[in-house]
């Protein structure tokens, strides 16, 4: 894994591929029907919209969106009023939507695993970086705003 690009979109892509593989080769039980497939598509579209909205705020504030870089500004507007991690929440919605669309029982653990990976590999270090960079302002924001929803 020395050359694995440790970035959230790569982990999302891996989750989407795993959702397809599990649904195709090891579905265990098909749980969902057309209504769930439609819900999955809508959830994935909403997640995409949330990602775009949150990313626009990075552009607007002229700060980096790269998870392994030091933050230049603390964004507390837009979707960041409701969630500290709207981009990751959008990615989680996309993966959950894909799992619902595929309808296989075997895919249900994937969103939970993805959330755990995001929390450990990205969110916790990013929150520590925010505290270092912005001190009391970051502490206040992190205390009053939920991590996910």
Automatic annotation (TrEMBL):
Topology of the protein relative to the lipid bilayer: Multi-pass membrane protein
Keyword Cell wall biogenesis/degradation assigned: no
Main location: membrane
GO biological process, one term: methylation
UniProt keyword Transcription, yes or no: no
InterPro entries: Phopholipid_MeTrfase (IPR007318)
One term of GO molecular function: methyltransferase activity
GO cellular component: endomembrane system
Location in or out of the cell: Endomembrane system
Superkingdom of origin: Bacteria
Bilayer-crossing regions: 12-32, 38-59, 87-104
Keywords, comma-separated and alphabetical: Membrane, Methyltransferase, Transferase, Transmembrane, Transmembrane helix
Stated name of the protein: Isoprenylcysteine carboxylmethyltransferase family protein
Lineage, broadest ranks: Bacteria, Pseudomonadati, Pseudomonadota, Alphaproteobacteria, Rhodobacterales
